[in-house]
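Ticket #4471: structure export looks truncated?
Reporter: QA, pipeline team
Priority: medium

Steps to reproduce: submit the single chain below to the structure queue and open the exported record.
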Amino acid sequence: MLLPLQSQFKTTFRIMKSKMILAAAFAAISQLAFAGGILTNTNQNIAYNRMMSREAAIGIDGAYYNPAGVAFLSPGHHFSFNWQMAVQRRTIENDYPLFGNNTADNSTHRKFQGKAFAPVLPSVQYAYNWRDFSFQFNGGLIGGGGKCTFDDGLGSFEKIVGETALGAVGLAGAVDQALGQQMFTSPQMFGTDGKYSFNSYMRGNSYYYGFSVGAAYKLRPNMSVFAGVRAVYATGSYYGYVRNIKVGNMPLYKVLDPSKTNSGDIELNCDQKGLGFTPIISIDYRLGHWNFAAKYEFKTRMRLKNESVNQAPSIGNLQDNLGTAVAQTVAAQAMKQGMTQTEALAYGLEYAKNKLSDPRVVGAMGMIKQQFDSKMEEATGEYADGVKVPADIPALLSVGVGYNPVDPLRVNVGFHYFYDKQASAYNHREEKLKRGTMEWTAGAEFDASKRITVSAGWQNTNYGLSEAYMNDKSFVVSSNSVACGARFHLTKRMDLNVAYFHSFYQHKKTTEESTQTVTYKSDYTRDNNVFGVGVDFNF
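Actual output as written to the record:
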């Protein structure tokens, strides 16, 4: 019994680590933004995907990018339906000496990849222009947008496993010293080197549906304004497990319930839902061959309500379990020496009480309990049942300039600023940012013929990242995106848009001094491809 219980302590740390793996992965899964600021998708129309700059363009896609400018379209109905498919890969490379204690892979280098796939990202824009008014609707995925899977966990969790494994070995050593014999630190149990192993898996999806309505009005023949509001409905679901947990040579289930091989498994199920609203204002001014536009989206206050089922062994009764295990072992030895069962049990209980009151044991158990509680709260607090998690969508200021030097050619440039530091996140993580996100865009389209318009564009996304902000639970990295596409004028009233863009993400490297002699290094990057098709109608 002594040996299994020591294994329980060690594996309990594993549990903490494992659950943190799940929580971290879920947070990463929940953030699949392809362009824009944190938690923001700005690719709402294929016209944008093929050109990357539509802030000052006049078109039905302006229901999102330049709503004031939509007022300059012809009278009548304008409709656009768009479909996108996005494929994204997230790569995190870590270096940490304690990874060498993983019995499945003793390399100190790890490469973790999360694969995200969004096969259907729809969006719809509609406008009805009547006299000087333009009544508009926009619907699409303005945040999240996909499913993501992590087959091998995350480095931050394995880091905790390695560290807590050593902590468990320290407790085992303290207990053995108090008992005056090697029990918990034996090679058959925890050993002395902090070896560990486990299996983990997680998947999740997150969608932020945005539906906006508003109206534009032409104050002058060359100037219009817009006011509207967007409703945002957020939903996400996450599932993961940690199985086959082992510390040293002791499987966790043998300590918890030897009759059930899954008694040591960890599962986390979490569903999130939330609702928020965003006021939007816009202005457009035309001057000869030039067009100037600006839009401001206020912050969307989001609180995601959790419905969760979280399971993990309790460490609160650690001392009592340890005392019982020691008492039973000592009682069995005493009975062999001639004591009755009642006498032996009483002797064992008294012996365990005296030995476990040793300051070394009390200190080691207190440290483990404190570490366990704090790490569990850090890892799973965001996914606890009933919790309302802050997940604001940041305010956005966009400005753009369009220029039409000759009839077949249209050029656009734009700038976005996302007020990320003013958007509340869990545990006020936004405060670790240096500044909000800045984006520069540029694009051009050319009428190659009466039937075909070709286009290309570029976008630079620059986040205000800091080392303190970065973690594999949820990360973004700056990027340059390039796009190309075409618009086919199928009939007088119908156009077909096709587009492709690729994002070239930068690497963000961080270094964390785990101890004075041990350093944890991380390298974050992504890879992103988006394909899209859209149809525009005018009638």
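Status: closed, not a bug. The export was complete when the record was re-opened. Leaving a note from the reviewer for reference: The first strand starts at residue 76 and ends at 95.
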